[in-house]
Design goal:
single chain, alpha/beta, two-stranded parallel sheet, about 25% helix
C-alpha cells in the first residue's frame, strides 16, 4: 500500500497497517489530520474475524465522521469461511485488467455470484454507502503480481481507478 500510495501521489498512513488493525477510528482520524496533503490511504484488517471486528469498527468511524470524505474503498477478497461480502463497482484482476466482476483471493474473476466479493473485512462496506467499491485479490497472495518491488501495479491501478472515478483532482 505504501508503494501504491506513493505511485499516485497519496499519503499512506502506515501505522494503520496491522493484522488486525491496532488503532481505533479516532486514533486514525488524528493520523489522517496530520498528513501533509490529500489524498490519504488508510489500511484496515480484521484478521479473519467474522462480524464487525476492529478494522470494520475503525472504518465505520471514519466513514461516518463529518470531517472525512471517502472517495472510495479497495475491498480485498479473502477465503474466510462464512464471511459476508460486498457488491463491487469493478475489480482489478491479478493480470491487471479492470473487470465488472468481483474477484477471489487469487485475483481471478468470480463465476459464482460474480458481483459479490467475499472477505472478512468487507462485510460492512455495503452498509456504509461508499461512493465506490473496487475489488482486488489478496495483495500478498497473487503469485507476486502486486509485489512492491515490481511497483505494486495492481494496487496502484485500483487506487488510480478510485481517483479517476471519484473525479478527485487534488485539493
Amino acid at each position: 500500500m505504501e508503494k501504491a500510495s506513493h505511485n499516485i501521489g497519496a499519503r499512506c498512513i502506515s501505522v494503520s497497517a496491522g493484522n488486525p488493525t491496532r488503532l481505533t477510528g479516532d486514533q486514525l482520524l488524528a493520523q489522517i489530520n496530520k498528513a501533509p496533503h490529500d489524498p490519504v490511504v488508510v489500511m484496515l484488517d480484521d484478521k479473519g474475524y467474522l462480524g464487525q471486528g476492529k478494522g470494520e469498527r475503525a472504518l465505520e468511524y471514519l466513514a461516518t465522521h463529518p470531517d472525512i470524505r471517502v472517495l472510495g474503498v479497495l475491498a480485498v477478497a479473502s477465503n474466510t469461511e462464512y464471511a459476508g461480502g460486498v457488491n463491487v463497482d469493478c475489480s482489478v484482476t491479478s493480470s491487471g485488467v479492470i473487470s465488472q466482476a468481483a474477484v477471489d483471493k487469487s485475483g481471478r474473476e468470480k463465476n459464482f455470484s460474480p458481483e459479490l466479493l467475499t472477505g472478512d473485512t468487507v462485510e460492512n462496506l455495503g452498509d456504509l454507502n461508499f461512493p465506490l467499491v473496487i475489488g482486488i485479490g489478496d495483495i500478498g497472495k497473487m503469485d507476486g503480481a502486486d509485489d512492491p518491488d515490481r511497483g505494486a501495479p495492481l494496487t496502484t491501478r485500483a487506487l488510480k481507478e478510485i481517483l479517476n472515478r471519484s473525479g478527485y483532482h487534488g485539493g
